[in-house]
Each structure stands twice: as structure tokens, then as C-alpha cells.
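Notebook, bench 3.
Goal today: get a predicted structure for Metal-sensitive transcriptional regulator from Streptomyces chitinivorans so we can plan the truncation constructs. The sequence was checked against the plasmid map this morning, with no discrepancies at the termini. Length recorded as 93 residues. Pasting the sequence as submitted so the record is complete.
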Amino acid sequence: MTGYEKHKDDILRRLRRIEGQVRGLQRMVERDTYCIDVLTQVSATNAALQSCALALLDEHLSCCVTEAIGHGGDRAREKVTEASRAIARLVRS
């Protein structure tokens, strides 16, 4: 079971919207759109990806990590470490 199972449709909707934004970026470059306008859309796409990543992280913490902590032991420590590393990756990006 994935942590985002209850919100899978929302996550997929977000990802499809992002996919559309990327296709729009490709069209903008093909049409020689002004650089700043392309960069503005790149920024919007990055923000959408960040928002999606945060939603997934929230679901992971609320479900997977919380459940593992409830059971305790090595599995709990592994899930907390895994979440910490994911957060570090997001912060660096």
C-alpha cells in the first residue's frame, strides 16, 4: 500500500497538469517565444512539481512513517531516515 493511495487521483491530476505545462514549454521554444516568457513558465512548472512533491511527502509522513513509528523498532528508524533523506533531496533541488 502506498501512502498516497487515498489521494492517487489528485496526484495523477497534478502530474498530468505538469505534463501539459512541459508540453507547453516545448511549444513555446518551437515557436521562438521570448526567453523571459519561457523562463516564467519554467518557474511555474518547477513550483507545480514542488507542490506535488510536498503533497507526496505529507502523505508519506502521515501514513507510512506514522504506521512504522507505531510498530517501533528498526522499521521505524528506517522510515524516519528515509523521510529525512527525501526532505534533504527536496531542499537541495
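The two ends are 27 Å apart (CA to CA). The first helix runs from residue 8 to 30.
Flagging this for group meeting.
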